[in-house]
Write a structure and sequence with these properties.
The chain is of the alpha/beta class and 338 residues long. The protein has eleven helices and 13 strands. The protein is 40% helix and 19% strand. Strands 1, 2, 3, 4, 5, 6, 11, 12 and 13 form a nine-stranded mixed beta sheet that branches. Strands 7-8 form a two-stranded antiparallel sheet. Strands 9-10 form a two-stranded antiparallel ribbon.
Length: 338
């Protein structure tokens, strides 16, 4: 099999009903479509069996989350490429061809993504991945088209193919051999930051990651957890710290983690005092404690990642502080960053 499109589903019948038809319409000639179901209790399976018999089903007996759910699903699929696709994605005509042709022509590229636009505002980028992702020196993610909560209009300013540090998990096109060789998504993350962690590990082994804006999809976003959900805040902080612990070089690890201690608690108090958000305030504290408790479980991962790294400096891991650029310098667009 050349390409397997794999949609992970959990009680997402509404999303499947609305967006799966576009995937089948614009992908059936180039890919096999799978839905891996995380033990849904809604009518997802009835919908798929009755209306979309061409979709291949992979059924689980419990909810394995995003990361482990995909790992377990992909282990059952023999394909050259995987495309991990959220159920709330609307694809467009000709969306697959640029991705397949680019990956076929560039064996040193492990993964890529299309340009991600918002279904709510089709002239704007979507938060989850926009036009390709980067990290600042302290591990804060940002994109061409999105910095923190500032999302840009799409005026074609990021329409050139670009090498990035991470590709969005909402529509992640990845070479199966490399995915499996680096161990896939980290299932312990459950959800959030797992695609950044995966791409960073692949990047450290010398592979490249790209955004190819000729391919365009539209994303609802926040389909699993709303943006202000304390669980989402907890997972983002805990998993981001864990990813940094695994992937930062020996020289960077200590200084970055010391700065993050101060920055994380500053963020927590800002959530409480300025945003009056007690749930997110508590979530940051819980995330810091959870990271401290489980860090030892990742010591072997860190040793393996550092031993196998072939790239010392990664240009897409920028050397500036995004917080300083955004809040002090007032640079709110990707094109304004140094």
């Amino acid at each position: 099999m050349k390409l397997a499109i794999v949609i992970l589903n959990w009680n997402g019948a509404k999303m499947l009903r609305q967006y799966l038809p576009s995937v089948l319409q614009y992908s059936r000639d180039e890919a096999t479509v799978f839905v891996a179901d995380n033990a849904s209790t809604d009518d997802s399976l009835e919908l798929l069996r009755e209306h979309y018999p061409e979709v291949q089903l992979i059924l689980f007996d419990k909810n394995w989350g995003f990361a482990d759910g995909y790992n377990k699903a992909l282990a059952q699929i023999d394909a050259e490429y995987y495309l991990l696709l959220n159920s709330d994605i609307e694809v467009t005509h000709h969306w697959l061809t640029p991705l397949i042709e680019f990956m076929d022509a560039h064996p040193d590229v492990a993964a890529c993504q299309p340009k991600l636009l918002s279904i709510a505002d089709r002239d704007a980028f979507e938060y989850a991945g926009a036009s390709g992702g980067f990290l600042d020196r302290f591990g804060y993610p940002f994109c061409r088209g999105r910095i923190f909560d500032t999302v840009e209009k799409d005026d074609g300013q990021y329409d050139t193919p670009a090498e990035v540090l991470w590709a969005t998990g909402a529509a992640l096109f990845v070479r199966a051999r490399v995915y499996n060789n680096v161990g896939g998504l980290d299932g312990r993350f459950f959800a959030h930051n797992e695609e950044i962690d995966l791409c960073w590990r692949m990047r450290l082994q010398g592979y490249k990651i790209y955004c190819l804006p000729e391919s365009v999809v539209f994303h609802v976003g926040g389909g699993t957890l709303p943006k202000s959900n304390p669980m989402k805040t907890f997972l983002n902080f805990r998993n981001n710290l864990t990813m940094l612990y695994k992937c930062l070089s020996d020289e960077e690890l200590g200084p970055v983690m010391r700065r993050r201690w101060w920055l994380d608690y500053l963020a927590a108090w800002e959530m409480l005092l300025l945003k009056r958000n007690l749930g997110d305030f508590k979530a940051v504290y819980k995330a810091r404690r959870a990271f401290k408790r489980w860090k030892k479980n990742f010591e072997a991962d860190r040793r393996s990642i550092q031993a196998s790294r072939v790239t010392k400096e990664i240009p897409e891991q920028r050397r500036f502080s995004l917080l300083w650029q955004y809040y002090v310098k007032g640079r709110k667009r990707f094109s304004d960053l140094p």
